[in-house]
Amino acid sequence: MEVNFEYVDPFDEKYDYLMRVEHLGRYFFASNILKNRKSILDVACADGYGSYILCKNVEKVYGIDCNNSYLRIANEKYSSENIIYKQMNFDDKIINGKYDGIVCFETLEHLKYPERFLKNLYNILDYNGTLILSIPNSIYEQLENGKNIDSYHLHIFTYNYIVDLIKKIGFNIKNIYGQSYINKIVNKEILEYEITNVENDAKTIGYPNKIDLDKSYSYIFILGKGADPNEWK
Q1: Cα separation of 113 and 44, whole Å?
Q2: What CA–CA distance (Å, rounded) separates 209 from 155?
Q3: Rounded distance, CA 104 to CA 102, Å?
Q4: Which helix (H) or strand (E) holds 116?
Q5: Phi, psi for 34 (deg, rounded to 5)
Q6: Quick check: helix, strand or coil at residue 131?
Q7: What are the helix and strand counts (H, E) for the chain?
């Protein structure tokens, strides 16, 4: 499976089908988690398909991305009265405002300064807000001559490193999910499965759960602020 993409559009058939299902499944999941929130930030929104999914269940979505070409597509294909798209290089600039929900999928590994960026997300998240953060599982990052074959991935984060970083910044880990079913299909651990269409499959085989987290291509962290007696250990 080719992996050297800056982003994946689930509705573009040039991308691998299961990869499309996986990406779309995360946004359906986030939409359910953040239902009825007032102000949602979608970080690295790309062409806006995820922001459009999120806007169905919340008051306002702010989609930000560093690539103006993607945002032009977003405004053409995925516009809505309750979505605002904005170009921003968030590796160099500070994101301002306050949000009771933040979605940040497969972004941290693309940035020059991931810790500084994650601190920024902590500062703009409301005290009772929720950050949904996904990070590639280092086990499945593919190396060639010691370098990641995905040229867009500037960092490889081990599970222990990212958990320690999350806690160091001040987040509490409310839960951790994965999408192991997809990865098991890719790795031929599951040989029989039913394919319908990308949206239906994103809500079934691609929908995050807590089964075999170590076999998921990405970890999906549900994060909050402040002390939590039920924090994931």
Answers
A1: 15
A2: 25
A3: 6
A4: helix 114-124
A5: -100, 15
A6: strand
A7: 7, 9
What confidence tens digit (pLDDT) does each residue in 202-231 have? 999 999 999 999 999 899 999 999 766 455
Residue 2 confidence (pLDDT): 46
The residue-averaged pLDDT of 7-16 equals 89
37-50 per-residue burial string, b: 16 or more CB within 10 A, e: under 16: bebbbbbbbbbbbb
**pLDDT tens readout for residues 110-132:** 788 999 999 999 999 999 999 99
- Which residue is listed with tokens 């402040």? 226
> Distance between CA atoms of 130 and 101, rounded to whole angstroms?
5
49: nearest Cα among 36, 30, 33? 30
Does residue 21 form part of some domain?
yes
Token couple for 80: 């809505």
Q: Which residue range forms the structural domain that includes residue 193? A: 17-225
Pairing of β 218-225 and β 39-43: unpaired
- Token pair for residue 141? 């990052």
Q: Domain count for the chain, please give it.
A: 1
Domain membership of residue 124 (yes or no) is yes
State the Cα–Cα distance between residues 131 and 209, nearest whole angstrom: 17
- Is the per-residue pLDDT at 172 higher than 90? yes
- Asked if residue 190 lies in contact with residue 181, where contact means CB atoms within 8 angstroms, the answer is yes
Assigned domain for 4 exists: no
d(CA 137, CA 49): 24
Q: Residue 180 domain-assigned? A: yes
Neighbouring-strand partners of residue 84: 62
User: Tell me, what CATH number does 158's domain have?
Assistant: 3.40.50.150
Strand partners of residue 135: 219
What are φ and ψ of residue 206, in 5° steps? -100, 0
